[in-house]
Amino acid sequence: MNRSRIFISMVAALMTLALVASGCAPQNKDVILATTTSTSDTGLLDALIPVFEKKTGYVVKTVAVGSGAALTMGKNGEADVLLVHAPSSETPLVDSVVAINRKLVMHNDFVLVGPASDPAKVKGEASTAAAFTKITNSSSLFISRGDDSGTHKKELEVWKAAGIAPKDAEGKAAAWYQETGSGMAASLMVASEKGAYTLTDRGTYLAQEKNLSLDVLVEGETILLNIYHVMQVNQEKFPKVNAKGGKAFVDFMVSADTQKTIGDFGKDKYGQPLFFPDAGKPEF
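-> structure tokens emitted (284 positions)
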């Protein structure tokens, strides 16, 4: 190692010691973030996490899974902070005080996409449930994530609204209904390759659109609203949880600068934002 590198290393070490001594640097730097795949697949976390790390000194380990799996990680004390989009499944964790400091962060929406040929003739349907009924009646192929994610939960909500069970009581799926068990980007690719329909969050669709042969066919209904919250895992339930790191991430996500970044994210590339900031607003 040459002298300049030695000098730089010494300066960096001294700065770190000074930060620790002043109380500015966190003692436990590692923060485990359990989050939905859409925040990762859209590239949003790539824009946010380096800023958080630089501002706070924390180092984030991101585990991008379906919201159901992320919430399970929180329930088991395997994460410090959660960023998810399954409100009805988040409530039990808050009620049991496993999750605390839950904050509204942002929203976008779900859309039904499919091939331009639209074999089920669903394009322009005002009701997503009616579109699902047409898909069923025409036996058109539908790709489901099947992974207990926020998107999968929303899809099941629409099937219920349509009065349709794509799987029987024994769990056997109809021939036209296929589950990937994968994230949104991968499921979109499967739907594209097979000329199938699928339900997706708009952000991931826009981020992947150039690689897909899928069009947005049904959109805009209230049931398709897609709401994201951030919350800490309670250290009183799980002593090993990094409470300070989790709180720092929650505070960061609802800060004015971060909310502005969220509102601008995607405009330059897609001509529209992928998410809409909601911190401080009333719950939907």
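The first helix runs from residue 3 to 22.
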